[in-house]
Each structure stands twice: as structure tokens, then as C-alpha cells.
Amino acid sequence: MTSRLRTVLGLGALAELVVFIAVAAWIGLGWAILASLATSALGWVLLAKQGTKTLTELRLRAQEHRAPGTALGDAGLVAAGGFLMILPGFIGDVLGLLCLLPGTRKLPRALIARAVLNRLPDRARGPVRVQSTRPAQVDPEPGVAHVTSTRVIEGTVVDKP
Fold first, then answer.
1. 3-state DSSP call for residue 132?
2. Is 88 a domain residue?
3. CB proximity list for 129: less than 8 A, separation 6 or greater
4. Is 82 domain-assigned?
5. How many domains does the chain have?
6. Does some domain include residue 50?
7. Is residue 146 part of a domain?
């Protein structure tokens, strides 16, 4: 584990502890523990409901031979959100809800996409422009089987301006 990840995890655990103590001071220790248990139970329920829905969508896409698209990313966000909700702590519960609820999944998806794009080299980002040319039509020789479903695209990749 890298030192940066350990630092982030340590600061996250410290923040969870500080927030729990603040909530316990505000509503009482018993109520804070009860609220933590209630959010964990809510996490289990949401994980079961959203997980089943997302896996059904993935299965349907696989049966129809379609690309998984955002359904695969949603499955990962649902799993991460459920994990965060099940763990005790109020900050993780809020982050987990953002990942579990379909209407709020766009925010974590956009943040993750931005983080991934920032780590990619410039050449791997953004639209790739391609100039293509079509080869001249070739008539098949008489008596030779000709496959018409094969497509050949010739071209060169143009760097970004």
C-alpha cells in the first residue's frame, strides 16, 4: 500500500471519528449508535435492491450482445456504495448514498472519470481524429468466391493540433 493511500485512509478514519463524536455530543451516544446501525441496515436494503437491478441490466445486455456501457460502471458504484453504507460512520454513509441512489450516481461517475482522465497521457485523451481513404473497388475474378462482408479501412492517425 502506498503512503498516499495510507494517509488518505487514516485521515478518512479520523474524520469519521470526529463526526461520530460530534453527532454523539449533539444527540447523545445511544442515539448516535442507533443511527449508525440504522444507516447500516439501510445500506443492506439499498445494496440488495440496486444491486439486483444493476445485475439484471448487465445480464440483459449480455444476452442481447450489447456493450455493457454505464451499467458496468453502475455495478461498481453500487458495490462501493453498499460497502461504504455498511461500514459504521456518517461520512461513508453520505458517500455511499451518492453511489447507491440512481439519481445521484452521476456525481461520483463524473469525479471518477475526471480523476482517470487526469492520469492519462495527453495522446490518450479526447477525440482521436482519423483521415481515411477508400480503396478502389476490385471486381472479383470469375469463378472465385468473393466475400462481401469484409470491410477494410485504410487511414492514418492525425495528431491533435
1. strand
2. yes
3. 157, 158, 160
4. yes
5. 1
6. yes
7. no
Stated pTM of the model: 0.67
Residue with cell 458517500: 95
Rounded CA gap, 103 and 101, in Å? 6
pLDDT by residue, tens only, the chain of 161 residues: 688 889 999 999 999 999 999 999 999 999 999 999 999 999 899 889 988 998 898 899 888 888 887 888 888 899 999 999 998 889 999 999 999 888 888 899 889 888 888 888 876 766 666 676 666 665 556 655 555 555 666 777 777 65
The candidate with the shortest Cα–Cα distance to 134, out of 148, 150, 155, 156, is: 155
Output phi, psi for 157, to 5 deg: -85, 130
Structural domain range at position 8: 1-119
Neighbour-count burial for 13-24, b at 16+ CB within 10 Å, e otherwise: eeebeebbeebb
Instruction: Return the closest-CA partner of residue 41 out of 92, 88, 105.
Output: 88
Query: Distance between CA atoms of 41 and 157, rounded to whole angstroms?
Result: 53
